[in-house]
Amino acid sequence: MAKSRHYKRIEKKAIASLKSLIQKGFEAVVIGIKKVFKVCDSKLTIMVVPHSKGSVINFQTNVFALVFGILLIIGIVSAFVYFKRQDSGIRSELSKATKENRELLASFDELRDENNNVLQSAKRFKSSLTQTLSLLGLNQTKNVNKNSSSDSDLNSLFETEETVTGLAKDVSDMKQLSSFLESSIQPIEQIGKMLESQETLFTDIPNIWPVKGGIGHISQQFGQTTHPITGVWYIHKGLDISTYRSGDPILATANGQVVTVAYDSGFGNYVIIKHKHGMYTRYCHMASVKVKKGQFVSQRDVIGTIGNTGISTGPHLHYEIHIGSDVVDPAKYVNIKLTNKK
User: Fold this and answer.
1) pLDDT value at position 34?
2) How far apart are CA 65 and CA 57, in angstroms?
3) pTM higher than 0.90, yes or no?
4) Residue 10: how many other CB atoms lie within 10 Å
5) Are 254 and 210 in contact (CB under 8 A)?
6) CA–CA separation, 223 vs 267, rounded Å?
7) By three-state DSSP, how is residue 163 classified?
8) Which one of 95, 226, 253, 319 is at 20 to 30 Å from 342 when CA atoms are compared?
């Protein structure tokens, strides 16, 4: 019981000390606030004395109003500096955006020009495709999709009135062009299949350049001319192809069978190949012969080399094409551009 009373007395003293401390602290705060208000409420007289003989200007205020005014001025100046910097940043961003916008417009104009070029190329492609299909006997309207009349036919792209402008029109044009190109795949595939089916026919008809690698030039064309040695007027029945040297490989221009391997005082070493459809080819003035009579050869097989045998003014190949008993101009059967090289 004695200890309990002792603890209670200590507790009461602690509570009393705490209350006293809180009260003193509160009183100190109140006193401090009063002092601050008293200082802030202190009267100040500000005098402005001009250097001239003008009257002195003075006005009264207190510390609180003076401090508030100074803080207000500092705030206004700080806000001005801050917004000035923000304005400079905005101006810089705006200038950058304007420059990028100009570059974008330039790129857009270039893209529009390229778009127009593509559309012009598409016009030419449409014309060529239509002409090719007509020559091959293919009906284009049967090869395009049923929906082509609405959005795939290139006519709708080139003949429709321009009811829209700008980017919308460019997008519309490209969509229609893409649709047309998609619909063109089928007729082009049919052309490819037709050409593939005719591959055998092409290899049976003499239609390639008779010198390997496509080298050489025509030194004498087919037709009437004077003989370079005798000077007599005669009909030159073939093409003279020169590479300015001997030894270049000579190719069979079509599939066929070698029917003649011989030497002639005029043609020198020569070979005759029989092809289908009553066609023959003759290769003359050869330096060497790589085939034998009765041998079957394929188009592009090497049958000999260019030489200067027989009556010849220099190394060259004399190449002839016969259809039955008629001699025809070989230039009509090879993909070349004739020149008047002598």
Assistant:
1) 72
2) 18
3) no
4) 10
5) no
6) 17
7) coil
8) 253
